[in-house]
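User: Can you help me understand a structure? I only have the sequence.
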Amino acid sequence: MSTIHNLRHDIETALGKPIQTPKDFEFLRERVYARLHILISRTTLMRIWGYVDEKVEPRRNTLDVMTRFLGYSDWEEYERNAMLPKEQQSSPILSRRLSVSNGLVPGDRLCLTWQPERVCDIEYLGELRFVVTASKNTRLHEGDTFECSLVVEGEPLYLDNLIQGNRPPIAYVCGKKSGVNYEFVKA
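Assistant: Let's start by predicting it. Here is the structure, written out as tokens:
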């Protein structure tokens, strides 16, 4: 299996969905920008996936960006890791984590995504509390509040003391099957 094929597979795993349509390439482009603040053209991504039938090798800079998206320092580190026996390979995509008490200050905002096509924007209030500021295709609604101490990308997100209107607080799990991805949102 080629290293580019592995890269495509690892990115799809990190996103929790296959990249197959123009809409998927736009989604990936937006995720790369949200995480790294680097723009990659949709056409470039289509070439990497073979969606556009052009025999052009991706530039090294593009490969560096795509592997940084996964948590590697650059393409060279990704290739070295791919040469190791499977049991010795590292998986940075599984270790991207956010400790709420150490990594956020009140007012910080996150965009959470999980399958199928769920999106939820949240704002940190302090003392491990969050408020939902926007939501699409989820059971969470604007104004709901909850507690959370750790976000691990690709893993389920456990919410405690979720308060929705006048209902009693409950525990809730986001991304139970596919895990949750997160990005910081600029104010």
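Now, to help you interpret it: The helical segments are 3-15, 22-36, 42-49, 60-70, 75-83, 100-103. The radius of gyration is 18 Å. Let me know which part you'd like to focus on.
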